[in-house]
Amino acid sequence: MTHKRSILFWFDFASTYSYPAAMRIATLADSSNIQVIWRPFLLGAIFQQQGWNDSPFNIYPAKGAYMWRDMARLCMRENLDFKRPTVFPRNGLMASRIVCANHNELWIPAFVRHVFQANFKYDLNIADLDVITKILNDLDLDADKILNQIKQQEIKNLLRQQTDEAIQSGVFGAPSFIVEGELFWGNDQLEHALDWCIDH
Amino acid sequence: MTHKRSILFWFDFASTYSYPAAMRIATLADSSNIQVIWRPFLLGAIFQQQGWNDSPFNIYPAKGAYMWRDMARLCMRENLDFKRPTVFPRNGLMASRIVCANHNELWIPAFVRHVFQANFKYDLNIADLDVITKILNDLDLDADKILNQIKQQEIKNLLRQQTDEAIQSGVFGAPSFIVEGELFWGNDQLEHALDWCIDH
């Protein structure tokens, strides 16, 4: 089956609202024969450009308090397990590099979901080598090979380039979706992004 | 008909996303027998607390560019006329005081919608006395009386108190909805807020 239409899914493994988007997007896109292009990026780099050295949810307490409550409500609506991480935001650099280095592999969607679940369902440190190794093992992948590969400067550069591409595309938060040049921001815009893909 | 359940609708006449919320809320709430309590507040006061002296949509260009495009798309989806105002944000102080001073009057929902349309459909200056006078006249109201009333210090204080109440309630943006102490932020959360009202 060939996919003609595609949706760029820009996410950060540290981003709370990226979690429900990551858990939902493949099923929704598949049902409309839309290909998902999984694009991790470093939201922190964008925040730094805006003068923030932390998540705005930490900098602005009212916004943060709302987000945690909203996440609990929306995960309940979507039947997703959710546990507020004891550390926020967590460092998704290693997991992001793995996605960059293997973006065409069929296991990428499952890997992304496992990492998000580690962070937001199991409250695990996704920057921990053991946590990532276990996820790779659980997916029957060659963890050693994959973890060696991401030490290459080329892969590190790829993630930086991808973050630059996000900025160039107008991305300022996560999750974001791009369909035919149209940007949609936020988990609750996923359906609108897919509708746009179908209608245009 | 008595309304048992109610939804607090916190809005700012300058706020773009408050426009579709204001145009939609009465019809949606009425159909579920939910009373809307119309609560204007001054978002600028909240932004100042966060260290911003302008709308974040002006301060952060990527966020602003996205918002204008998203507004155009969502108003198209909702069949609402929308014209990007030549001045943003506009000063909704006069209109907000009128709502504060007359919050129990039956004409308030229509007045609110007219002011939002003046700003976001007709690109009119809602801080202009002539614009507000015409809206009041169009609603067959005693414009002179209403415009005199809002000169009272008591009314000016009321709007400030209401803004303080918004902050105390956790409001950090507009539109916001509060149902049974639950806060919902953003036009696209209106349906969730009403569902919460029905379910609890």
Automatic annotation (TrEMBL), chains A, B:
Presence of keyword Isomerase: yes
Entry keywords, A to Z: Isomerase
Its EC number(s): 5.99.1.4
Catalyzed reactions: 2-hydroxychromene-2-carboxylate = (3E)-4-(2-hydroxyphenyl)-2-oxobut-3-enoate
Matching Pfam families: DSBA
Transmembrane segments: none
Domain DSBA-like thioredoxin: 7-192
Gene Ontology BP annotations: glutathione metabolic process; naphthalene catabolic process
GO MF: 2-hydroxychromene-2-carboxylate isomerase activity; glutathione peroxidase activity; glutathione transferase activity
Zinc as UniProt keyword: no
InterPro entries in the cross-refs: DSBA-like_thioredoxin_dom, GST_Kappa/NadH, HCCAis_GSTk, NahD-like, Thioredoxin-like_sf
Superkingdom of source: Bacteria
Annotated CDD domains: DsbA_HCCA_Iso
First-level EC class: isomerase
Positions of the catalytic residues: S15 (nucleophile)
Listed PANTHER family: GLUTATHIONE S-TRANSFERASE KAPPA (PTHR42943), GLUTATHIONE S-TRANSFERASE KAPPA 1 (PTHR42943:SF2)
Stated name of the protein: 2-hydroxychromene-2-carboxylate isomerase
Annotated organism of origin: Aquirhabdus parva
